[in-house]
Predict the structure.
Amino acid sequence: MSYLIDNTEGAQYLLMGNEAIARGALEAGAKVVCGYPGTPSSDIIESLAKIAKDMNIYVEWSTNEKVAMEVAAAGSFAGLRSMCVMKQNGVNVASDFLLHLAGSGTRAGMVLVSCDDPGALSSANEGESRFFARLVEIPLLEPGDFQEAKDMIKWAFELSEEIRNLVMVRSVTRMSHASGNVKFGKLPPGDVHAVFKCDGFILDPMEGAVMSLPVRYKHALQQEKIKKAGEIFEDCPFNSYHGPEKPEVLIITSSACNLYSREAIGILGVEDRVGLLKLGTTWPLPPELLKRHLSRTDKILIVEEVLPFLEENVKILAAEMAPEIGIKTFHGKNDGTIPAVGELNPDLVVGALAQIVGIDYKPVPDEYAEKAEGVPTSRAPARELTFCPGCPHRASFWSIHNALQLDGRKGFVCGDIGCYGMATLPCGFSTLKTLHAMGSGGGIASGFGKLGRLGFDQPVLAVCGDSTFFHAEVPALINAVHHNSDFTLVVLDNSGTAMTGFQPHPGLKVSAMGEDVTSVDIAEICRALGARVEIRDPFDLGETQETLNELIEDKAGLKVLILRQICALSPEKKAGKKYDMTIDDEICLGENCGCNKVCTRIFRCPGLVWDKEKMVTRVDDVICSGCGVCADICPEGAIKRKEVA
């Protein structure tokens, strides 16, 4: 039995932040939970999917974040508490429906959990989701520790039902993926009955039609809801202050920065000089609470990630209150005291606070720094960012690169987010030339494919993964077919959402809950749209390259090549190898070969290692996945493969 469904009140577990959020949803009685895979948010759905049947809840990996929010909204409309989960980029995808949902309102409690990624540790950007709460006028909550990550979710559902609207809870990577002790509450009874009441008066919020029209009436009602949330926030249990009655400096912070700020105050030993106001309610800000604390000091340091969202909103309130609280000096991102990009950490906050309070602080003593300079930082060999051993994407981009080189017309590839985004780097032979949002590769290629009338004659390819295909690629393909755009889409089908943990997508026959479902065939979708479709194995380099060159020459509009090979790290493949790979030392010429170590210098599979003593390539049997592709790229035939019995 999963510890997440332990119904012992007061039981304490060490939980990752995302697990705490999942437990909070269970304690709140959430019955519908949907999302789209995206680090750092994925573990929330994963945790709930494993116990969905035991807890009689419905959990879904949706086609994309917009659909996830729509499915969760249906649960709310039918009287079930529901939650949708996504990373910061996903809120952009969901924003179309989000704007309407905030206007129509909800019925049973509904919570949007957005997990931001300051520093872009697992993202292509560190975009913020907090601004969406202000944009669409919904409440924003931010847990400041792991216990709050659980407790705040339950409170968010209660708030949602009090104002009859969506509530947003924002986490960050260091909250979602770090761990802390969490004390459990009770789980509610599991009996529910879903029903959508829609036969009442059209403006009845609980039994009428659910819509954001009429706008003037609904928008005014929406603003009443956000005003009510602000009033509730004045006494919110997740806003707290620690410090002297009249602090020399007041730190205002939220989320994981609360932990950094607490540590910074302790390291500097300024508990009697610095006050810490931790806000769990960051939109709308509770004005009376802020007034009380701002009036107690003249210096304020605002600590947050990433953009000055909290800082700017506090300053607006302070300007309005100036006749009562006086003029204040603010430190934060706008004056450069706190970095405006990337993650924060205790050292950065210590440095900022030390500067304000006039303490000469060195995070590392001089004698320690001198000793550290002479110590090797790592005994591990230096390795660049690369595809995994046996990754089918390496083979795919090898063929794509060579096909474009053979064509000779300076063709290029448009891409988007996924493992294959690394093809901008040498591990992908620097093949990818544009990298934007999911599905943007096809959309941009569709644009390039229409520039022939303006003198453009370079071959255009786009790549996307199989999960991305369902998420956002189909509209771009419809656009391309409709406008007769000339480009080739290469679908890198590795049978799962590999980058975030092999979550299922509509192309597979299993759901998040492990149930049998209907798979949707990528090839048939493309053929139905009118595209020419070919399917190849990327590990067959010769046939793949030949097909690519043929498609590039075909000027009949959209062409689709599906390169189908399961990910090397998938559970199915990790069980064994197809080939045992060896190097024939007598054939390998190393640096004397005309290829000049093409296997380790260009192909760059981590499973191939240059032996400096023997001056030949060798196979690292520990990490080699036995895909056999390297045997085809060695011009001397020194790499041998033997099929495993």
